[in-house]
Specification:
It contains 11 helices and 10 strands. The protein has about 280 residues and is α/β, with parallel strands linked by helices. A hairpin with a 2-residue loop joins β9 and β10.
Amino acid sequence: MAIHFEKLTYIYDRKLPFAHTALSNIDLDISEGKITAIIGETGSGKSTLVQHLNALLIPTAGSVDIGDHHVGANERNKNLKSLRRDVGLVFQFPEYQLFEETILDDVAFGPMRFGLDKKESYERAREALLSVGIDEGLFQRNPMELSGGQKRRVAIAGILSFDPKVLVLDEPTAGLDPEGSRRLIDLILDLNKNQNKTIIIVSHDNDMVYSYTDDTVVMQNGRVSYHGDTLSLFNDSALVEENKLLLPHIVHFKNLLSSRGFNISSSARTIEEIANEVSGRIKG
């Protein structure tokens, strides 16, 4: 499901004296079947942009097309329920999405809202929870009793239960310990590669972005300052400086190895890949 933003502008409180233009004249295409990161400083427009993907926000001007769905300014936008079934948005704070008394009830809510009967909704809920690594013994627990990582997985399961084509994740690894982040990243990679989900990630974690995403969109002051291949961005010091980005730690490490005579290929993007290259040269 390809995504196309055309001349998209969004103004908060536009009829009030303190109106604020959050997005200005955005032209952007996001490819189907890839993992795309949206990064930039706080207030650059990242979250505002992705909230247009399932019409939580309606453009002040311009439009967004998601597959066959069209949402435009000053238009009578139809079939928003169908759009929200195709595009699932997981907020930064999972507590915003968890409200039922049990985990199972919470995850079954989405399918029932989209018209599935109770039996199928609960079957989908069970499948979704197991797919994100939530043990069946936890299904009757209150969502607020879970750890941060478990809450995030349940929130994702709540979206997966109605099988969206596009999954949008706002700061998915924020607040998680390294093991929790690793498990969540593995889940995201599985959803993309094995379930053919288009994944969009809003993040401040440039290390995660560098290691695991295909494309990156950089936002600055409500505009797109870069859109292209993730490795091409972070392996080019001029582009990093131009877009006011922090260099990922793994790129610093690669540069350090290079200064010691180990020139690591530009395609190596994880510690494991770098270690394998270094090990192969030492053994060779």
